[in-house]
Amino acid sequence: MLKVLVVDDSAIIRKSLSQQLDELGYEVVGEAINGKEAIKLYKELKPDFVTMDITMPLMNGIEALKEIKKDDKDAKIIMVTSHGEEKLVMDAIKRGAVGYILKPIIHGKISNAVSKVFPAWEKEEV
Question: Which of 47, 60, 94, 109 has its CA 20 to 30 Å from the CA of residue 66?
Answer without folding.
Answer: 109
